[in-house]
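Fold this sequence, please.
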Amino acid sequence: MISSFAAQFKRSSTRLTADLVHRAKIRTALGSYEKARAGTTAYYQDWQAARAGASARKWEAINHLDVYLTEFADKLTARGTKVFWAGNGQEARDYVIALAKEKKARSIIKSKAMTSEEIHLNAALKQAGYEVVESDLGEYIVQLREEAPYHLVFPAMHLTRHEISDLFQDKLNSPPTDNPEELTMIARRELRMKYLQADIGISGANFGIAETGMISITENEGNARLTTALPKVHVAVMGIEKVIPKLADLALFLPMLATAGTGQQITCYNSLIGGPRQSNEADGPEEFHVILLDNQRTQLLADAEQRDALHCIRCGACLNVCPIYRNIGGHSYATTYQGPIGSVITPHLRGLMDWKHLSYASSLCGACTETCPVKINLHHHLLHNRRNAVALQPDPAERFAFRAFAFLTRFPGLLNRLARLSRPLIPLANAARSILPPPVKGWVASRDLPPIPEKSFRDYWRKR
């Protein structure tokens, strides 16, 4: 039985693959990214060695996650940070809402945090009666449109300047303009007061450094610095897989994240936060809370075969090269993490049988694995998910077909006779697609059966 998520995915992807205007926008945006990234990787003495080094550091962190997480949490706590271990999204949401009530917060400002999208934190806070404003420009735009982010790194990549201008006219009563700088200034004027009024600032974390007990946030706009520094309370929501062993590891990961994510040598703002404002400091929040989010990550950790999916640094590079993503877009996935990495981890985070369709939405070309800066074996993990889904809920028709094929391959003479008998039926099957039984009907819906030669190789060889 097809899940509702799979049916929705099929409807959305069918519609968007036929939308040539939409596809042209995405390809134009990703074409600029490819050019920038190619230029930046050339600055590395050995890009492949850098990838191998990053993969090794993440392997060390993930395979000793208990040690590094404990070290990270202990050092944060020693400087006055309140660390909360959230087993799932509900626990994380409840913690933030309880904190907002305790602080009598009225408004909340939020910088880009995919973990908060994962647990639907905005919706929960809004339902509890709090105003939540996204401060990242792309996130702010899609929030005004009441949409989910389109891409891990470029949330509003699917929109043109004209569409953003129309949105700002409608929502912010601003004058029409197609000038990117003017559009940015319109958003900046709206957001500036939000920073000053906010009682709580919420952020994510790109990395958590165990050695120093700090979170690392990397960005291009500076909004995260305002979000984490101006409100009296700062809450960081961080997936437990984001921890890395040493501060020195950032010397590799920060430029690599920028190169793979946006094609830059390094992002404009790179911040390290290790606690609330200390007695000898003039700036910063009075309270710092770090929520360490599990939300099924430990189940993925327990799977030795696919554990390296937790190495992901959320650069979005695999989305940018994926031929499926380029055609169906980010919203078709209907989940927080799109593209190849989303197709690998979403079944683990949200349920294999409801989300197995994402692992089938792949050409298995291997471009994602080839581009991943931490060398995650993405296209093989898509095959692993497919295998696991079939093992949990085998299709009787497919099982019969493969067993029959396995039987026939043991008897070449019988297989050859059946091939001769079926030769005249192939054109009829192509002509009668609508009445074919499943799963054959689904298979031939977008495929033509190959033309059959008049004479088989065996017949030809026998005659020779």
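Residues 44-295 form a domain with the Rossmann fold fold (CATH 3.40.50.10420). The longest helix spans residues 20-41.
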